[in-house]
Design goal:
With about 350 residues, this protein is mostly helical. The protein is about 65% helix and about 5% strand. It is built from 14 helices and 4 strands. A two-stranded antiparallel ribbon has the order 1-2. A hairpin with a 2-residue loop joins strand 1 and strand 2. Helix 3 crosses helix 11, helix 5 packs across helix 10 and helix 6 packs across helix 9. The longest helix is centred in the last third of the chain and has 26 residues. It is globular and about 50 Å long. The protein starts with 6 loop residues before the first helix and ends in a 6-residue tail after the last strand.
């Protein structure tokens, strides 16, 4: 359960969220050169997740009782928040620029609100709806629809798939954090990575990987960088450090604050791709990206209205806040009476 933090503790929590956003933002920039050097995107994902799972295996052993207590939670985290997000995002990178792929992911808050409004048939605040409209309008500039969708359509669909899986990242990161049966966040990460690695092993079939690529170098806008160095960054910084600081920050901060700080991930990824990979976005794309982030900010920062007896959806990417109403336990599924306010915050996870 979240408690009021003193300024020092809150500053530490904000620092964790910032580190997580910066670490996640550098994953695509390090992965794309490996893909262009000859590795299949799924193989890069497998290396990332399997390597991180190996690093986190002592943590998994320490929390081995968690596998018996919360198997559905861990399986869901591994399948969607780890394997699904990474596979879709890295596959998108092979077809569209890093910044575009990540900006498409930031449609996740809008997707959650649309699901709440049209599937659950619950009201949303006007500010949240405005955030959805801004995000959609910004996306039209990012993909430059007036030019006949010059970006690869499959790449855009893959990025959208990553956005859908991103929903599960924040829901499951915060799920079950209250009560006597609360799951330790580090244990959830460790087992999520292990489950994700198992799923990806069956899908990616790493025994067919071009292992020789890892012994060579990859190009970053004309500069040769050892492939193993890029892989080390992806595993240790963009995965282990990013997930650990991100999940802890979500639990220590309000979902809205953590989500707004996470918006920096898209900025970091776009700037790094520009500097290190030479992926220069056009002025309309940059403007559209700014509008997407503003839309995400508005959606994540909106507060529930005072509907009479009705729960109002806060615009946001999905973090299970668990503030009011019944707490769902198990695999992350909520009953029809679960409060919509639980869906709040913002996302990354790439």
């Amino acid at each position: 359960m979240r408690v009021t933090q003193n300024p020092t503790a809150r500053g530490t929590s904000l620092g964790l969220a910032l580190v997580s956003a910066l670490a996640f933002g550098g994953s695509g920039v390090a992965a794309k050169p490996l893909i262009e050097a000859g590795l299949d995107p799924l193989h890069v994902v497998w290396l990332r997740v399997a390597g991180a799972a190996l690093v986190m295996s002592p943590v998994a052993w320490r929390h081995r009782a968690l596998a018996r207590r919360r198997p559905a939670l861990l399986a869901g985290f591994g399948l969607f928040a780890v394997a699904g997000v990474q596979a879709c995002y890295f596959a998108a990178l092979s077809r569209i620029p890093v910044g575009v792929a990540l900006l498409v992911e930031y449609l996740a808050p809008a997707l959650v609100l649309l699901w709440v409004r049209f599937v659950q048939r619950r009201p949303v605040t006007r500010a949240a709806a405005l955030g959805v409209v801004l995000a959609a309008a910004g996306l039209t500039c990012v993909v430059e629809v007036w030019a006949g969708l010059r970006l690869d359509p499959l790449g855009l669909l893959l990025a959208l798939g990553a956005a859908c899986c991103q929903v599960a990242y924040f829901v499951l990161s915060d799920h079950g954090s209250e009560g006597d049966d609360a799951a330790d966040p580090l244990g959830v990460i460790a087992y999520g990575l292990l489950c994700g690695a198992l799923v990806l092993t069956a899908v990616a079939r790493p025994w067919r990987m071009r292992w020789s690529v890892l012994g060579g170098s990859a190009g970053m806008d004309g500069t040769r960088v050892p492939s193993v160095l890029l892989l080390g960054w992806i595993v240790l910084v963009a995965t282990v450090l990013a997930y650990m600081t991100g999940v802890v920050a979500v639990r220590r901060l309000s979902p809205q604050v953590a989500g707004v700080v996470a918006c920096l991930e898209a900025v970091v990824a776009t700037v790094l791709a520009w500097v290190l990979l030479g992926e220069h976005l056009s002025l309309p794309q940059l403007a559209g990206g700014f509008v997407v982030l503003v839309g995400a900010f508005v959606a994540q920062s909106s507060t529930p209205g005072k509907a009479s007896g009705a729960e109002v959806a806060r615009g946001a990417g999905p973090v299970a806040e668990g503030a009011e109403g019944a707490e769902a336990h198990g695999g992350g599924a909520e009953g029809p009476a679960a409060p919509v306010e639980r869906l709040s915050g913002g996302g990354h996870g790439t």
